[in-house]
Design goal:
This protein has 373 residues and is mainly α. The protein folds into three domains: 64 residues, Dna Ligase, domain 1; 95 residues, no CATH class; 135 residues, no CATH class. It is built from 16 helices and six strands. It has a two-stranded antiparallel sheet.
Length: 373
């Protein structure tokens, strides 16, 4: 009997030890699960929106800023809850940088949504991308918006006619002056909506698009503010010249020369004689059709080919210009030319006298190198 009892005790002891280890391991597993869940809850909270209500702010990402510098700025400006949680998120997603620019960020968005906005992924999932080309007029901008959103062209035009809204914009943006409210100006914001590729949420409205484009204009124009101030011309006049250079200069390398010609003609008290201003005056897009003699020869404060425009700029910009045209106007090539014309390849030819100009036109036509619409 004694031997039998001893054998039972030897068999039960390993079982008791095994059960004890199983309990310990299960306890550790439960603790680990609780810890993981707790970390996930805390991490999720730290990535959640800082506000339950919509609060849109303008946030700038400077050229060359690292994702970590941007994250710190996001925390400092109260856009995200935790810089540490942000760092973990961008590391896990392998994000190395953002495109410089001004973003409209909503504090009711999570950190994940904010990062998606800065990388453009948010719009790929939830929004629309619109490209506004350099040289486009407000009419083309309105058509592009209508094509890509639920906003109608008339909504854009209505905002342009809203004096209270225009006054609000003038008070907000340093480069918008009362010159844009001249009764002869077709569209107050012509020339000031910077041509670029933008991404917007699907529920974007007309004001959001306009102000996003103005924000980008602010960023670009501010780089040249000191040059503009020293130019002897108002910002409205510089914008007007840049809009003409944009439409006249097909190739970037010709634009500073074209700007030089315009300054020469202004200094000499000559009319600028620019076809593109005449097209704009007639509300006809360049290339749409030829102009009538009446459209060319009738006075219009935009039409620099018409009467009473000697030594004068158009009343306002005729297109939304790019940075290259702005640079050309602020840094024109000094020359002694007064005339220019482009051939079919886009190359611009410059001449000093009207006779040389007419002779060049004849040569281009004979060589079948003359642009005809």
């Amino acid at each position: 009997m004694a031997e039998k009892v001893e054998i039972l005790e030897l068999e039960e002891e390993p079982k008791r030890k095994l059960k004890r280890w199983v309990k310990i391991l299960l306890g550790l597993l439960v603790i680990l699960i609780i810890a993981i869940v707790s970390v996930m809850i805390i991490f999720s909270y730290l990535l959640s929106a800082v506000s339950s209500k919509s609060n849109v702010i303008e946030f700038s990402v400077d050229e060359g800023s690292s994702v970590y510098a941007v994250g710190k700025k996001l925390e400092d400006e109260g856009v995200i809850r935790s810089y540490l949680a942000y760092k973990v998120l961008v590391k896990l997603r392998g994000i190395n940088g953002y495109k410089a620019g001004i973003y409209r960020l909503d504090k009711s968005y999570s950190t994940t949504d904010i990062v998606d906005l800065l990388t453009g992924e948010y719009y790929e999932k939830n929004g629309v991308t619109i490209t506004f080309k350099e040289g486009n007029t407000i009419r083309r901008v309105a058509k592009e918006i209508a094509k890509n959103t639920n906003i109608t062209e008339n909504e854009i035009y209505t905002l342009m006619e809203d004096d209270a809204y225009v006054d609000e914009l003038i008070s907000k943006y340093w480069f918008l002056t009362n010159d844009i409210k001249n009764d002869d100006v077709y569209y107050p914001l012509e020339g000031y909506l910077f041509p670029e590729t933008y991404t917007f949420t699907t529920n974007v409205n007309a004001k959001m698009i306009i102000e996003t484009m103005l924000d980008q204009s602010d960023k670009i124009l501010s780089k040249y503010k000191s040059q503009i101030d020293l130019s002897g011309y108002t910002i409205h006049e510089i914008a007007t010249l840049a809009s003409m250079v944009e439409k006249e200069g097909i190739l970037n390398e010709d634009r500073a020369m074209i700007a030089g010609v315009f300054y020469n003609r202004l200094d000499a008290g000559m009319s600028l004689g620019s076809d593109v201003t005449t097209y704009y005056a007639a509300k006809v897009e360049v290339g749409e059709r030829d102009l009538t003699s009446n459209e060319i020869n009738t006075y219009n404060p935009y039409n620099t080919r018409g009467p009473n425009m000697a030594g004068k700029l158009p009343v306002g910009p005729i297109s939304n210009f790019g940075e290259a045209s702005l640079k050309a106007v602020l840094n024109p090539t000094n020359n002694d030319y007064y005339y220019f014309v482009a051939d079919k390849s886009g190359k611009t030819h410059f001449t000093k006298t009207y006779e040389e100009h007419q002779s060049l036109i004849k040569e281009l036509k004979e060589a079948n190198n003359w642009i005809e619409w």
